[in-house]
Automatic annotation (TrEMBL):
Protein name: PAS domain S-box-containing protein/diguanylate cyclase (GGDEF)-like protein
Residues of the whole record sequence present: 542 to 820 of 824
Record domain EAL: where: 23-277
Length: 279
């Protein structure tokens, strides 16, 4: 067992060295990715639970590296956050999503807000409000067309500062959603103080529908809590009819998930829309 322990240690050591190296490599590649047009946005519609009508579209980043292939945002966003690159990547995401929204406005399709994910570290940057204001002006879309998704992680930061920033964003006229609701540093206190519009029930809870009574109880409570506070409640990661029916029975407002739509390129989403129109 001594031998085993030693091997285990060596394995960890190797793995760590390797992952640091991997991370450095990815960081360098990510610097280039912006210039080389390797980043892409996909869009995933959110639908009304009862009617199935599209009520919003979330922008999700994709990175295609010519040698490595597709790299998941779950992998590179944390690296971008650590290295500060998230500021540039985040600005690119905001601008690209708003441009896409403008294109849809001009074409008279997908007349719903576009949701963009914002990292904590984009809040550190004092100019986030000005940046968003500028991008809205530059792309010519209305602030109400933009929905900002933040996770509870932002409440780890200086809360005075976060509250002020969210209030300023709200004053601009954008809406604010809490992503992955209930999975991180939750303190229900912020629901009282922040100018929120929406909560998104995390996929982790939705997974439990039909097989975990506790997940079901938590979801029910979240929906009641959200609605009592006048917030819109969206459930994420809905893949089955059973999950949809549970959420419908419990009066969840909206659904996002593979059951209805997967994230797809803007062009592909447009094609689906025009097929639906001609039906
Ligand atoms: P998220 O914001 O919670 O996004 C939802 C994730 O769930 C997306 O993964 C989406 O593709 C996936 N998803 C949606 N419906 C289903 C479903 O029915 N089943 C399953 N299994 N998955 C579903 P994705 O695109 O890989 O993004 C992962 C995370 O990366 C996002 O989680 C978000 O935290 C982050 N991310 C993505 N794009 C951006 C971005 O532009 N900026 C920032 N800061 N973070 C981003
Ligand atoms: Ca999100
Ligand atoms: Ca989420």
């Amino acid at each position: 067992s001594k031998e085993l322990g030693k091997n285990k240690y060596q394995f960890c050591d190797y793995f760590m060295k390797n992952s640091v190296y991997e991370e450095m490599k990815l960081t360098n590649y990510l610097y280039q990715a912006l210039d080389r047009d390797e980043l892409i946005l996909c869009y995933q519609p959110q639908v009304n639970t009862i009617t199935g009508e599209i009520i919003g579209v979330e922008a999700l980043i994709r990175w295609y590296h010519p040698q490595i292939g597709f790299i998941s945002p779950k992998h590179f966003i944390p690296i971008a956050e650590k290295t500060g690159l998230i500021v540039a990547v985040g600005e690119w995401v905001l601008r690209t999503a708003c441009r896409q929204k403008k294109e849809w406005l001009d074409k008279g399709i997908l007349d719903v807000p576009i949701a963009v994910n914002l990292s904590v570290n984009q809040f550190v940057n004092n100019s986030i409000v000005i940046q968003i204001e500028n991008i809205l002006n530059e792309t010519g879309i209305n602030p109400s067309h933009l929905d900002i998704e933040v996770t509870e992680r932002i409440f780890m930061k200086d809360s005075e500062y976060v509250i002020r920033t969210l209030e300023q964003l709200k004053c601009l006229g954008v809406t604010i959603s809490i992503d992955d609701f209930g999975t991180e540093y939750s303190s229900l206190n912020y629901l009282k103080t922040l100018p929120l519009d929406k909560i998104k029930i995390a996929m982790e809870f939705v997974r439990g529908i039909g097989n975990n009574e506790k997940d079901e109880a938590i979801i029910k409570a979240m929906i009641i809590l959200g609605k009592s506070l006048g917030l819109e409640v969206i459930a994420e990661g809905v893949e089955t009819k059973e999950q949809l029916e549970f959420l419908e029975d419990n009066l969840c407002d909206g659904i996002q998930g593979y059951y209805f739509y997967r994230p797809m390129l803007g062009d592909d989403l447009e094609k689906i829309m025009s097929v639906n129109d001609s039906e």
